Structures are given as structure tokens and as C-alpha cells.
UniProtKB/TrEMBL annotation:
Keywords: ATP-binding, Cell membrane, Membrane, Nucleotide-binding, Repeat, Sugar transport, Translocase, Transport
Compartments it resides in: Cell membrane
Residues in ABC transporter domain copies: 16-251, 268-514
Name of the protein described by the UniProt record: Heme ABC transporter ATP-binding protein
SUPFAM superfamilies (alphabetical): P-loop containing nucleoside triphosphate hydrolases (SSF52540)
Topological type in the membrane: Peripheral membrane protein
One annotated Gene Ontology cellular component of this protein: plasma membrane
Family: Belongs to the ABC transporter superfamily.
Recorded GO MF terms: ATP binding; ATP hydrolysis activity
Species assigned in the record: Notoacmeibacter marinus
Organism classification: Bacteria, Pseudomonadati, Pseudomonadota, Alphaproteobacteria, Hyphomicrobiales
Length: 546
């Protein structure tokens, strides 16, 4: 059969060829002499430990940063990409981890934003709407163009970001950690969209820490380590274990190794807790739970079902409208206690949203490393803080938690996402609290660090701490928890032991409670099929048009 024009194009030039790309930030060599070729019409995964330089490399390709040296070819032609508009003009689109949509704009308005000039020249809103319809149809990416963006679930907001890039003519799409905020079902959808884009001749570059995603959806995988590409292989010829080992330079234990729990007395007791959000909508409804010393209680649930409000209320960040919380047998008076005094009482909290609550990004690492604990005598020097004590303390944590770069004077904003997470974890876990509340402990964290963080959490349990864990990663909940509570619509809808299956928990997460579960077999919510080349099962996400 004669080659189609598309097939000939695929063979003619790679979509992207980077040669000898280097980029330093002061002493940090974020990218070192990188050569990378991305084939057209392929899905190319990039993995690497935290701080390996993935985001920097993609930022160079998208014109956010300029490389110190090296060349970029797009479709066989050498180019310079001094700003993002140049990248867009070259057909490169980027879907960011934190969406850049205007919340009170409609889908159509968001998609046209920044491209209004072109739209007006070519016939205004009606033309834009028709063009959007065509793109939606071609790529099976339906979204209601008149829906307000803020009313859409995150999965659909991400879809709007993808549509926006395609509307601007993107042939090459970069996605940076796209599934961090998605439910398993939404992630499945995204992967089907990516496969569809590839079929239509688009090229996708996917940065992710989730190796199962790499195995399920990519054609080729490149591994980065300490600023370099250490390996590029067809995905079908490698394995999760091999990739993990190349990423961190040693074998990684991908399963949590833990002894049976030895629960002691109840340390944290929540009774009939109700919490409303800023619009007075109840987010947590009459929740009661206990956590004992020496056990990990995991709360599973699709994001937005009240688990974040629950943990933030226990931590003193939000006020309950009803109910009580006892710690060590003492009722906590939230009218009087703030997060700082709760810390003194023996509660530590690793917040989900490290940018909003865990860190002051403009502070140096050593300052963030004691944030909230800065009144401790250990850091005092009369009425002042002892700079040398702070730095010494920070250096120890940096070594213990392998925070990179090992520079306690670096501004926290300049650490990679995963290393910022390690700064918060190190701070909260080392306090030797009685009760530890942890939200999404390994979001954006590489496999080597996940292994370390999971081990630390289990060690704290074995040392008799009471741990309440919230995570949207079912794998994580199942691997760590001694008991699993499932939250749906603000309520605890079921409790299971550590042996609960993914399907069983998935049903509860979808709101099918024990009383109703005379239903047939549970759907398999395993995030993705790990057999390369096989499409994930058909699923529907809330708010999506049939
Ligand atoms: N603007 C900046 N100023 C100083 N250092 C920076 C800056 N941006 C990145 N770095 C440093 O460059 C290195 C690479 O960071 P980058 O964000 O590219 O890593 P990454 O592989 O994307 O990590 P993660 O998986 O944690 O997101 C890190 O050591 C980081 O601290």
C-alpha cells in the first residue's frame, strides 16, 4: 500500500530535535547537554526524579526560558523560541499543571482569550464557535462552549486547556503532570484523548511521575537524571522497575513493606463534625471517626468530597459548624486554638496544597524548614532567631530527606515541585507529633522519594503515632492504611480493612453504599490497563455531555 502523506511526513523529520541543550540557574545545572528526538505522531514520555530538569527542558521548548547553549529543531528546521508566542506560532502548545483559565469566563471565551485578534480578523465569535465545534468533533473533545469554566470539573477544565492549544494550531502538545489533579476516571479519559490526538497526527510530550501511565500510554520514554537524559527507549521494551532504577540510580522498592499494626488508645476522636464552605454549602456532614496510636487511617475519595475540608478543620485552618474533636482525650476548643497552638498540643499537619498553606515561596529553604515552629527555643537567640541554628537544622533535614539542590539559602520558589513537598514533610514529620494529619503526601513526588516518604510514615506509625491520611491515589491509600474510610458527598460511606480491593473502594467512592451494594460486580477502577497499546475501558465523567 502506498504511504499516505501523513506517513511520509512522519518519516521525513522528527517533530522535535533538541541538541546539546544546557541551562543553569546560578550554580544549579538544571539541563546538561541534552539531546532529545521526539518522533512525529507519537506519545513521548519524560520521567525523572524531582529536580531532574524536566520542567526546565519543557520551559525552554515553550519559550519560558532561554537555553544557555544548544539548538532546537522543529519539523526539521532550526528555530529560536524567545517567548511563548514564538512556540505557539511554531505549533507547540502546553497544558500546565495549574490551569491558566479565567474562572468566570465561558469555555469559548477562554479558548479565544489571547487569540481574539485572529478570531476577529477571520469573522468573530461565530467563526470561532464553528472552528471550536470542528476541533471538538475531530478530536472527540466535547465541552459545552457556553458553560462557565468554574462550573466544570477539573477533568473538563483540562480539556478546555487542550482545546485552547489545538485552537491555536498546536501540532505538538506538552503536558506537565496532567493527571495530578484528575480522578482515575478522568485520567482514563485524558489518555483516550491523547491516543486520539496521536491518531490524528499530533505529537504529545507527557511529563509524569506515574510510571503506570508511562507504560499504558506512551510509545517512547526518556529518563532524566540530574539534568541529563540517561536513557530513551521504546516503552514496550522496558518495565516500571527498570525505569524506576534508571531514574534514581538504585533499585526502588515499589511496594510498602510493613508489619501488622499494633493499635493503642484512641488519640484523635472526631464526633458529628459538620463544616460548611464559604458559600455555606455543607462540605463535611456529621463525620465521626477515631484514630488510635500506632495506626494509619486512610480516607479515600474522589477529590472534592469533603476530605480536604475535614482534615483542614481538624488542623484548625477551618472552623467546624457543629461537632467535636478530641485529641489525647481533651476536647479541642477551635475558638481558642489556632494551627500554631494545635502544634504545641502535639498535632502536625502536612497540607495538601503546599503553595497555599505549606510554604512561603519567597522565603529561603531554612526559613520554611521551621515555619510554624520558629518560636521553639531551639532556634532562639534572645528575642531573635539564630540564623546559624536555623541553617544547621536545615542542612540536617536536607541530607536526611535528600532535598535537592542541597542549598538551604535557596529561595523555596526555586526548588522543583517535588522538593518543595519534601521540605514540608521534613518539617512536619520530624516534630514527633502524637497525631499526624497528612494530605496528598506524594503528589508530584518521584518514585525514590515516594519510597522514602512511605517508609517514614510507616516508621511513625510503628513508633505509636496516630496518622490520618488523605490521598486521591487509591494505590497509596491501600498500601499505607490499616483501616480505610471512604468519603462521598461529605459523609463517610464505608469502612474497609487494608485488604479492600480497588473495585470495592471504587464503588464506595462513587457513592454506592454498603446498603445498596447488592449490585453486580464492581467496575475495575484500576487507573489504566498496563498492557501497552490497549485502550482503557470506556467511562463517563460527571458533567460530560453524552
Ligand atoms: N527559576 C529557577 N531558579 C533557580 N533554580 C531553578 C529555577 N527553576 C528550576 N530551578 C532548579 O533547576 C533544577 C531542575 O528543576 P525542574 O523544575 O526542571 O525539575 P523537574 O524535573 O521538573 O522536577 P519535579 O519533578 O520536582 O517537578 C532544580 O534543581 C530546581 O531547583
Amino acid at each position: 500500500m502506498a504511504d499516505t502523506a501523513a506517513e511520509q511526513r512522519v518519516r521525513a523529520h522528527p517533530a522535535i530535535r533538541l541538541s546539546g541543550i544546557s541551562k543553569s540557574f546560578g550554580a544549579v545545572r538544571a539541563n546538561r547537554d541534552i539531546d532529545l528526538t521526539v518522533r512525529k505522531s507519537s506519545i513521548h514520555g519524560i520521567v525523572g526524579e524531582n529536580g531532574a530538569g524536566k520542567s526546565t527542558l519543557m520551559s525552554i521548548l515553550y519559550g519560558f526560558y532561554q537555553a544557555d547553549s544548544g539548538t532546537i529543531e522543529v519539523d526539521g528546521k532550526q528555530v529560536s523560541i524567545p517567548h511563548s508566542q514564538a512556540a505557539i506560532d511554531l505549533g507547540i502548545g502546553m497544558v500546565h499543571q495549574h490551569f491558566m483559565l479565567v474562572h468566570n469566563f465561558t469555555v469559548l471565551e477562554n479558548i479565544m482569550l489571547g487569540a481574539e485578534g485572529a478570531a476577529l480578523l477571520s469573522g468573530g465569535m461565530a467563526r470561532a464557535r464553528a472552528e471550536l465545534k470542528r476541533i471538538e468533533k475531530d478530536y472527540q473533545l466535547e465541552v459545552d462552549p457556553d458553560a462557565l469554566t468554574e462550573d466544570l470539573p477539573v477533568g473538563l477544565q483540562q480539556r478546555v486547556e487542550i482545546l485552547k492549544a489545538l485552537y491555536r494550531g498546536a501540532d505538538i502538545l506538552i503536558l506537565d503532570e496532567p493527571t495530578g489533579v484528575l480522578t482515575p476516571t478522568e485520567a482514563d479519559h485524558l489518555f483516550r484523548i491523547l491516543q486520539r490526538l496521536r491518531e490524528e497526527g499530533k505529537t504529545v510530550i507527557l511529563i509524569t511521575h506515574k510510571l503506570r501511565e508511562i507504560m499504558a500510554v506512551t510509545d517512547t520514554v526518556s529518563v532524566m537524571r540530574q539534568g541529563q537524559i540517561v536513557d530513551t527507549e521504546p516503552t514496550a521494551q522496558t518495565s516500571v522497575e527498570a525505569i524506576a532504577e534508571k531514574m534514581v540510580g538504585r533499585r526502588v522498592l515499589l511496594r510498602v513493606d510493613k508489619k501488622p499494626p499494633r493499635p493503642g488508645p484512641v488519640k484523635l476522636s472526631v464526633r458529628d463534625l459538620t463544616v460548611v464552605d464559604s458559600r455555606k454549602v455543607p462540605m463535611v456532614k456529621n463525620v465521626s471517626l477515631d484514630v488510635r496510636a500506632g495506626e494509619i487511617v486512610g480516607i479515600a475519595g474522589v477529590a472534592g468530597n469533603g476530605q480536604s475540608h475535614l482534615i483542614e478543620t481538624i488542623a484548625g485552618i477551618r472552623r467546624p459548624t457543629q461537632g467535636t474533636v478530641e485529641m489525647n482525650g481533651k476536647t479541642l476548643d477551635y475558638d481558642r486554638l489556632d494551627p500554631a497552638s494545635l502544634r504545641e498540643e502535639g498535632m502536625a499537619h502536612v497540607p495538601e496544597d503546599r503553595h497555599r498553606m505549606g510554604l512561603v515561596l519567597a522565603f529561603e529553604e531554612n526559613e520554611n524548614a521551621i515555619l510554624g515552629y520558629h518560636n521553639s527555643a531551639a532556634f532562639g537567640n534572645g528575642p531573635f532567631l539564630s540564623i546559624s541554628a536555623m541553617r544547621e537544622h536545615a542542612r540536617e533535614r536536607i541530607e536526611q530527606y535528600d532535598i535537592r539542590p542541597p542549598d538551604c539559602r535557596l529561595k523555596t520558589a526555586n526548588f522543583s515541585g517535588g522538593n518543595q513537598q519534601k521540605i514540608v514533610l521534613a518539617r512536619e514529620m520530624e516534630r514527633d507529633p502524637d497525631v499526624l494529619l497528612i494530605g496528598q503526601p506524594t503528589r508530584g513526588v518521584d518514585v525514590g522519594a515516594i519510597e522514602f516518604i512511605h517508609r517514614r510514615i510507616v516508621e511513625m506509625r510503628d513508633a505509636g503515632k496516630a496518622i490520618l491520611l488523605v490521598s486521591v491515589e487509591l494505590d497509596e491509600i491501600r498500601a499505607l492504611s490499616d483501616r480505610i474510610l471512604v468519603m462521598f458527598d461529605g459523609k463517610i460511606v464505608g469502612e474497609r480493612g487494608a485488604e479492600a480491593t480497588e473495585g470495592e473502594l471504587g464503588l464506595l467512592m462513587a457513592g454506592v453504599t454498603d446498603a445498596e451494594s447488592d449490585r453486580p460486580a464492581a467496575p475495575d477502577l484500576s487507573m489504566i490497563d498496563t498492557t501497552p497499546g490497549q485502550a482503557p475501558a470506556e467511562t463517563q465523567i460527571p458533567g460530560e455531555r453524552p
